[in-house]
Amino acid sequence: MKPVKEGKVREIYDNGDSLIMVATDRISCYDVILKNKINKKGTVLTQMSKFWFDMTEDILPNHMISVDVNDMPEFFRQPDYDGNSMMCKKLTMLPIECIVRGYITGSGWASYQENGTVCGIKLPEGLKESDKLPEAIYTPSTKADLGDHDENISFEKSVEVLEKEFPGKGQEYAEKLRDYTLALYNKCADFALTKGIIIADTKFEFGLDENGNIVVGDEMLTPDSSRFWPADGYEPGHGQPSFDKQFARDWLKSDANKNEPENWELPQDIVDKTIDKYLSAYKMLTGKDL
After folding, report:
1. Do 206 and 215 meet the contact criterion of CB atoms below 8 Å apart?
2. Which of 29, 95, 114, 230 is the most exposed place for a label (fewest CB within 10 A)?
3. Residues in a beta bridge with 229
């Protein structure tokens, strides 16, 4: 079988009335696919998504059918696909990346320092880097093609983008995406905090099922789509250590790496520390080893 679509990390296979989404061990930083493979990373992404999908079914359904390769075609019953593959419902994906920020960091912190806003949302004065926001904020973005950068947009612009593709539904869909995003984040961030992990921000993707209902698709609350910080030692006023690929990003930004993006390659010790962080986050959240 050959993938019908290939992203920076995922491969998607057509399985007739369903799709099979495989999370590879590739790692991308700053929209560049690195030369390294991070062993077991794909399995962490798939199993962590399953964990959150199961937990949030009371808020809204998701696209997951099974992560058991015995439910999939024989092609997937081999070590390369065991654990990192998810059979999913086919969806009509909505053209918005639904980003939620509970803490001020990254590009949000840079924007706040410039003009006191994040994606056009005015925030209180006097916030420090990594501060918890009074309440989580919804900051949608466009979905860029492979190799391009997503663009932050206002809520009003998200209505326009959705209206263009789904005439008469733009306002309704935009409001539902915002409300679902905040509900999912608030429930999961509260849970993660009890396990010693701060979810600073994350992104969700949604689609329409065959009945026109909005459901959660893609991945959910993984170290690839979120910033996870250890709650132990959390201290606003500077950047925080993290369980996600920010660790690899930081190395790439440092003086240790002077190569052009197409030649980016992590040293083995950074690869080892990166997967250790992914595995550690998985165990803290789920209570299980992979």
Report:
1. yes
2. 114
3. 198
